[in-house]
Structure formats: structure tokens, C-alpha cells
Amino acid sequence: MIDPVLASRLQFALTTIVHIIFPVMSMGLAPFLVYFTWKDIRGGEPVYEQLRRFWTKIFAISFVVGTVTGIVLEFEFGTNFAAFSTAAGELFGGPLAVEGMMAFMLEATFLGVFVFGRERVSDRLYMISALAVAVGTWLSAVWILIANSWMQMPRGYELATENGRTIVHLVDPVAAYLNPRFGFMYIHMQNAAVESVALFMAGVAAYYVFRHHVWGYQVRNVAFWETTLKIALVALLITAPLQVLHGDLYARHVFETQPQKFAAMEAVWETESYVPEYLVAVPTDLGDITDPRAKELFGIGIPGGASWLASGGDPSAEITGLNEFETEAPPVAIVFWAFRAMVGMGFWFILLGFWGGYRWLTGDLLEDDLLHKALMGSSLLGFVAVELGWIVTEVGRQPWVIQGVMKTHEGVSPGLTGTEAAITLAGFVLVYATLLGLYTYVVARIIRAGPPGRDDLRDHPKRREDEGQETSGAPAGVASDD
Amino acid sequence: MTDLAGLGDGPLFGLPLPELWFGLVFAMLGTFLFLDGFDFGAGALFATREDDADRETILAAIGPFWDGNEVWLVVFGGALFAAFPAVYADLFSRHYLLMFGVLGALILRGLAPEMYEQRHDAAWQRWWGRAFVAGSVLAPFLLGAFVGNWVAGTPRSFTLVGVLTGLTTVALTVVSGTAFLRVKTRAALRAELRSYGERAIAAYLFAVVVTLFALAATGLRTAVLSPAVLALVAVSVLLAGGYVLALRRDRDLLALAASAGLTYGLTAVVALLLYPAIDPVSGLTVRSAIVSTLPLNLMSVGAALLLPLVATYFVVLYSAFSGPAEPAGGY
After folding, report:
1. Within-domain flag for B331
2. Considering only alpha carbons, which residue of chain A is nearest residue B307?
3. Mind listing the pLDDT tens digit for each residue in A196-221?
4. What is the residue range of B109's domain?
5. Nearest C-alpha neighbor of A385 from the set A443, A434, A346
6. How many structural domains are present in chain B?
7. Higher pLDDT pick, A478 / B226
8. Domain chopping of chain A, boundaries
9. Any CB–CB contact under 8 A between A329 and chain B?
10. Cβ–Cβ under 8 Å, residues B146 and B99
11. Which of A39, A193, A332, B195 is the most buried (most CB within 10 A)?
12. Which pLDDT does position A284 carry in this prediction?
């Protein structure tokens, strides 16, 4: 039967990898929805009501799936990682409890008003609920990342042994919870969420714009999709460069605080100076395929690049190699490649943003079919990059569950049997595959149905005044209203 | 190094914080069992409806609420984790498969209504309707079984006491589900619901008594026969009578209040049966399992500030959607 430690780790990996999709979608959509709601209530331009209603549907289904998959993670600390929970509950349980009370309660209650209440509550309360949901989703991430950043960079604690169990005692809450790592993680994560959603919006909108302007099909509500594309491009132009610039600072912080993880990201085994930044590294011997920096290696690298990255500009800086650490190295190949793929995508997103921005300036944003194809192909890549980033963060911390304090295998529930763990792991593979399939099906249906037509919109006081001046960006002869 | 260090010297204001947190954890569990309980009950009653409009009305009735209600389970778990980490870890890992059963049922219950609304063909809606009912019945059953095993102090997850507590919990959710749906519906549906409520309350009282006998037989005799528990049983019988009367006189909110009383009463019985232990299997007591003073004080300040806010969110939510439910609302 399968080893309960391995099964627990695989299960936690699977359940987090699936779960994170939904909060990224809801956290990323939140600022857009606040903006759409504000514009809809204030100005009454029909397209903002369409934007609000369309993206709220995707927000709502993401939130529901995010809720049910999120409870799984909370419970797994108890079920599968009981030793970790007992040892670190004092530091780790608090942020989770506060997340529930401060953030999750706020978002889940106002979500009801936001999704179902447009006809029932005043404009003011509706706007407040949009804000409350947005603030709630972003506060959730605060507490989850406070907990996680402590696992990366534990501070403000003392170790004690009680009844034969090692217990982590909280001694300095300020040091523990106002962790410098938290700031890096929060900015990187929240910006990534907005960027991922911007890419998703742009990709979906590009599909409809492409069908209409390039293939010449009739597309309902084409003005809506054009506006979506432009809003998404603006968001991409802001978030994509920020993500890479900030990511650079973050990598340097990791080098300073988790040298073992940094060495794995760069696959540096021996301590060296002038370490190149390998873009591609292929072992010449198939036996070394899992080791991207095996002795005999064909690689393309920027000389001194990794040293430069680690030190913030010094190509001669020394990087401590993995062989110098007492503990075994993290799975280097996973961390090395996940890091490269994530960074590569980060640059690609900047390029996409500038490409779109340039076409917009030259006036042929709607006709550039290659751009549309690139946007469609990249619509899910933001989510992929987030997953890869978390893989670097979590796999790169191995073998530790709490860096330098507790190893992952020590954290697993002592009484857990291989049979139990295998049953739930198999169950999750099945259930989560179905769940992802159903989520994709629902989101695809929402996208295919498109926004509500202009005839189905609410009776907005401002709109009545502007009657007759309504414009749509669609070319003459093509119905943009249905 | 900081002013916060003073927080580690002793319990905040000299309060009996371990006992307060023990009470708070069960109050959170009770709130979940009441609020999401009526969603579960509505889900069980969904099975009795053939008519499309009735089914849509039931889904619309719980639509804006269930997600917020379910968060009480998250908060219960978080509070147990933060205040009694060893109990959280021991209990959840001991009843491993049961916990994942609860999670699976909650996934089904949460997802099914969303899927049900996606398509309007008969087979699709029949299957997602069944999934919704299954999730709504299994979630309280398995959670009840977990609580039963917890109180009985059995290391096994599948026990007679567990099954009995599970059935008790399901009956209770139908009791509150009926009252809630009657508040949210009008005309024929509302009238037809009454008989389910009456049957459910009878089943609940019977199940509670049988469960208490079973618990007494497992060695909790003194605790079960303690004056406080017996008083709570007596109060429950009175509340049950009040519930039936309220239903007959169409005072649905009163009936809902009575079912809230029953739910908190049941949770209080669970807490009383445990105390001063908190996990009989591992021998942990409220005083031995409590987290150390500094994090406990921090948590207490946090909870004291946040829980009143949380209450206002629920007031806003429930007042925004007062009155009967309208199908096909939203967005």
C-alpha cells in the first residue's frame, strides 16, 4: 500500500493546485467588478452593466467552487498533517481563524447581496457589497500569506518539548506575523491574480473580436467584447511589468533568506561565483535527466546572470551551492524548470501588453489577427504561471515544511494508514477532475451565452436621458444589439 | 521587544479563557448547525418536491445565504485549530475518512444547485437534484456522526453512537429547514411543508433520547444524567412543543427561533457531556489542550473585535433578502 507520507503530500499538492485557480479568479476579478459596478451605478453606460453582470457570473461560480475546495485545505491540516498542526498550531492556527472571521465572513455574506441583490438593495448598499466582497477576497489572501510566509521564514518563536512532542511557541507576534516575506508574497500574488484575470479577459474578448473583425462573423454584443479587450489590455500593461520588476526584488529576497531554495531555483550544486543564468540546460546523459545542472551539460546561459540576479547587479557574487547544506536538496529539476517557465511567461505577458498597446495606438487593435491568436493562446497562461510560482515556493522549501524547523515528513499525521490515505487521494483525483471539468463547462457556457443583451438591461435613470445617443463600436451593418 | 509582550503574562483581564474558548468553539458549531442546517434541511425537503417551480423556489430561498452560512464551519475549524491545536489535529486525523466524507458532501451540496440551474433538460436536473439532496443529507449526517464519536470518545469512526447522532442531526436540519422554507415561501408549498416539520420534530426528539441512551450505555451515564443535561432535554421538549404550535398558527419565524433554540441546546448538551475533557480519547482536557497565553490573548482580542462585525454582516444579508424568495433572481 502507498506510503501515507507520500500520499498526504500528493493529496495536499493536488488539492492546493486545484483550489488556487478559484481564488486567483475571484481576487483578480474583484477590482474589475468594483470598477464596473461603480461605472454602472454612476454613469449608466449600458456596457458597464453588461460587464458587471457578465463577469459577476464567472465570479460567483468561482467563489462557490473556491469555498468548497478551500474548506478541504483547512481540514487537511488536521487530517493529514496532524503533527504539523499540533506543533505549529500556536502560530499557524491563529491566522487561519482570523482569516475566517475577518475575511471569509465578509466576502461570503456580501457575495449573497452582490450576486442576488441588485433589484433588492439601494445603489449605495450594492456598491458597498461590491467593495466588501473585493476587500474580503484580498484580506483572505493577507491571512493565508501571513501563515505561509511564516513557514518560509519562521520568526518570533521558541521551540519547546512537551509530552515528547516538539511545540513551536509564539513569543513575538510582531516578528512572526509582520514578516518581511509577507510583503513580497502579497504583492507578487495579488498582482499575479489581476494579471491572470486580465489575460483571461483579453483572451476571451480576443476570440469574439477575432471572429467578428477577422473572420467577419456576426457577433452579438461586439462592442462589449471590444471594451473588455481594451480594459484587459490596460490592466495587463500595468500589472505585467510590475510583476517582473517586483519578482526580481522577490528573488533577491529569497536568495538572502532561503539560500537553499535559491540554489535549487538556479540548480547550483557547488558554491561558485560568476554563476550563469541558464535559460536552457540539458544533460548530455539521459541518466541525469532529472538534474538540470548535471556535470555534463549542454546549456545556454547568460554569463554571471544568476549571480547578478541574486546580488542585485554583481555578476561575480557567490551563490552557496546545494551540496553545502546539511539537509538533502529540494527536487531541483521541478524548481529549476518551474522557475524558468514562470519567468519566461512573465516576460511574454509584458510583450503581449506592449504589442496590444502599440496596436491600439496605431489604430488596428481590432484587426491584428496574430495578436488575437496570441491573446487567445495566452488566456490561461496567467493561471499556469501562478501555479508554477507556487511550485517554486513550496517545492523549493522542501524538505522542510517549516523552513529549518520541521521537515515535511515529520508533519504528517502519525496514525494515518496507507489505505486511508490512498482512498482519499484516489477520491480527490476523481472528484477534482470532475470538478474542474464541470467548472470549465459552466464558465464556457457563460462565455458562449455572452453578456445580457441591451434590451435586457435595467432601467437606469441616466440612460433615459441619453436615449438616442447610444453608440456602439460595431461596424455598420453588423448587429451589436440583440 | 514590543508592548505586545505584556499580553503573554497572564489571561486577559483574568478571564477563564480556556472555558470561554471551549464555549465559543461550540457556539460556532451550533451556529453552523443552525444556519447551514436549515440549508441542509431545505435540501432534504427538495426531495419531496416534484414540481419545477417548487424546486426553483427552494433553491432561490437558500441561494444568497448558504455560502455565508457554510463559513461558520470554516470558523469553527479555525477556532478549534487556533485555541486547541492538539485537539484539532488528533480529532481530525482520527476520524480521517469521516472528515473527507463531510467535505465530499459539502462539495456536492455546494456545486449541485449551480449545476442544476445550468441546463433545463429533465435528466440533467433530475441527477443534479438528487446530488443536491444527497449532499444536503450526507453533510449533516456525517458531521453528526463525527460529533457523536467525539463525545463518546471512541477511536473508531463508524459506530452505533455515530450513526444515531448523525440521524439526530439530519432530523434537526429538517426541523429548521421546514421553518426556514415556510418563512421563504407562500401558498400551497408553505401549507404542505407543515407536516414534514411535525414529523421531523417527532423524529428528532425520539432520536435524541435514543442517542442519549446509547451514550449512557457507553460509559457516559453520570454525564447524561447530570441535572444540566436533563434540564436541556426538558427545555428541548418544551421548544419542540412551541415549534409545533408556531407551525400550526403560521408563526414561522417563531418556529425558526424554536429550531435555533433546539440546535444550540443540542450543541450545549455535547459540550456538557465532554467538559472538562475536550477529547476523551487522547485524555486532553480544556485546560491541558488550550494554546499558551500569548496567542490565546491575541485570539481573544481578535474574536471580540471581529465577531460583532460578523453578526452585522449577517443582519445586512438577511434583511436584504427578507420576505419570500423569488426564483430566477440574481446578477
Report:
1. no
2. A101
3. 999 999 999 999 998 888 888 888 88
4. 16-320
5. A346
6. 1
7. B226
8. 179-271+320-412
9. no
10. yes
11. A193
12. 61
Interface ipTM: 0.90
Q: Is residue B32 part of a domain?
A: yes
Distance from CA of B198 to the nearest CA of A (A): 30
Query: Given an 8 Å threshold on Cβ–Cβ distance, is B85 in contact with A90?
Result: yes
Spatial separation of the C-alpha atoms in residues B80 and B84, rounded to whole Å: 5
Q: Does B313 touch chain A (CB under 8 A)?
A: yes
In this prediction, residue A310 has a pLDDT band, given cuts at 50, 70 and 90, of confident
Residue type for position B133: V
What phi and psi, each to the nearest 5 degrees, are found at residue A315? -70, -10
Burial classification of residue B276, based on how many CB atoms lie within 10 Å of its CB (0-12 exposed, 13-18 middle, 19 or more buried): exposed
Neighbours of B318 (CB within 10 A): 15
R_g of chain B, CA atoms, integer Å: 20
DSSP annotation of A321: -
* pTM of the model as a whole: 0.91
Contact check, Cβ <8 Å, B97/A67: no
Asked whether the beta carbons of residue B64 and residue A113 sit closer than 8 angstroms, the reply is: yes
Could you give the 3-state DSSP secondary structure of residue A158? Answer: strand
Q: How far apart are CA A344 and CA A329, in angstroms?
A: 24
d(CA B202, CA A273): 79
Q: Tell me the mean pLDDT in the region A153-182.
A: 89
Give the list of residues 6+ apart from residue B80 with CB closer than 8 angstroms, or none: B25, B87, B88, B91
Give residue A285's pLDDT band: very low, low, confident or very high (50, 70, 90): low
Top-ranked range on mean pLDDT: pick from A292-301, A320-329, B24-33: B24-33
Model pLDDT, residue A367? 87
